[in-house]
Amino acid sequence: EYRNPIVSPIYEKDLSNLPSTTIICGEYDGLRNHTEEYYLKLKQAGNNCKKIILAGQTHTTIAYRKIVNEGEDPANTIAQVIKNSL
Description:
This protein has about 90 residues and is of the alpha+beta class.
């Protein structure tokens, strides 16, 4: 069932006391509205979180990076987020 919080954490009732979270999505990501809803729920629950929207990117940009290679490489953004969290 897709409404199971294990499948989609947006359906979790208690999102309090979670670790710092960074949500990264593409500007043209078909799931962007879901990431926005989840981000707002995390913020409302008092969590430290931020959201990065990758200009010109889609949901599958990383998987198809060799084919669709315009714009900033999302792997660089992800690496920077990880580096900054250490």
